[in-house]
Specification:
Elements lengths: L3 H8 L3 E5 L1 H4 L3 E2 L8 H8 L5 H12 L3 H12 L3 H9 L3 E2 L2 H8 L4 E4 L5 H7 L10 E4 L16 E4 L14 H9 L2 H13 L1 E5 L6 H13 L6 E6 L4 H11 L1 E6 L2 H4 L1 H29 L1
Parallel strand pairs: 1-4, 1-7, 4-6, 5-6, 7-8, 8-9
Antiparallel strand pairs: 2-3
């Protein structure tokens, strides 16, 4: 079912899990709701502002220009903006079956654009086999490069910030330019990961301009390198998937998305099972070689 290269890389902990908003929205808050995606959060943030301005912002939202919509809303809400972010993404929630399945993949490096603390909560619920909590980094500080060779620890890297510091989350075009496009540490780190690891995108819509740019540059510079992978719901445009494969070396793994994407955790759990089987084969082979 799965590409053997992907299974082998998972077995060798050579995969970076890149988790987007779809992963967070799989969890229920303690109020019984799902956290809002960008589209809904920004729509709701337009409530109560001048109608003509709201029309312009809603048009940006419809065109998926979320960063510019955020830029305008941040200026309008001013000091109340961090409170709006915290009120939504600071909610307590229970990790979902999707979180559990992802952690069962047992990889060292997780990148996420999400601000919430669901991944940390998933570790606290003892999903997976790790004996220590992961190192959590916000943004991409220079110490993030330690993750490339620190094989004894797990890392969660929140590239857009965390609700622990809502004032500094990357949620507007100006913040994004500063943290990504104008930040050589950001580009060098992601480029290093793309070259040395296989990326597996989950719950990510591939509308992040910096990530897209880096993947296209990677594909252009290293045309013979191995592909990366993304889970996408059935019904996704064949042309979009072809563009992802041709321009970004990004192979789509499709799944049935009915029932609030309920099939996705099962699919990832199956991938985890195949990974564990392959890891056992690798360990057995190493024991044989060492005994000779």
């Amino acid at each position: 079912m799965f590409n053997i290269d992907l299974v082998d890389d998972l077995a060798r902990q050579k995969v970076v899990l890149f988790l987007g908003a779809g992963v967070s929205s799989s969890a229920l808050t303690r109020a019984g709701q799902r956290m809002k995606g960008w589209h809904t959060f920004l729509r709701d943030a337009c409530d109560g502002i001048e109608s003509a301005v709201a029309v312009d912002i809603n048009k940006m939202i419809d065109e998926r220009d979320y960063l510019l919509a955020c830029e305008m809303l941040q200026g309008i809400h001013a000091d109340n903006w961090p409170r709006l972010i915290m009120a939504e993404y600071g909610q307590a929630a229970e990790p979902s079956q999707l979180h559990k399945a992802l952690i069962s993949l047992d990889q060292r490096i997780v990148l996420t654009t999400n601000f919430d603390k669901l991944l940390e909560a998933a570790w606290e619920n003892k999903f997976g086999t790790s004996t220590h909590y992961p190192i959590v980094l916000t943004g991409i500080p220079d110490r993030a490069f330690s993750a490339l060779k620190d094989y004894s620890r797990r890392y969660i890297i929140k590239i857009h910030g965390s609700t622990d510091d809502a004032d500094n989350v990357v949620f507007s075009r100006s913040q994004y330019i500063k943290s990504a496009f104008a930040n050589p540490i950001y580009t060098d780190f992601i480029d290093s990961l793309l070259l040395n690891y296989t990326f597996l995108f989950v719950g990510f819509s591939m509308d992040d301009p910096a990530i897209i740019s880096l993947m296209e540059e990677y594909s252009f510079k290293y045309g013979k390198s191995r592909s990366h992978y993304i889970f996408v719901p059935e019904g996704k445009s064949e042309k979009v998937m072809e563009i992802n494969k041709r321009l970004r070396k990004l192979v789509s793994i499709t799944y049935y998305s009915g029932g609030d994407h309920a099939k996705l955790p099962a699919l990832i759990t199956e991938l985890s099972t195949q990974m564990a089987k392959r890891r056992n084969e690798i360990y057995a082979s190493m024991k044989v070689e060492n005994s000779l």
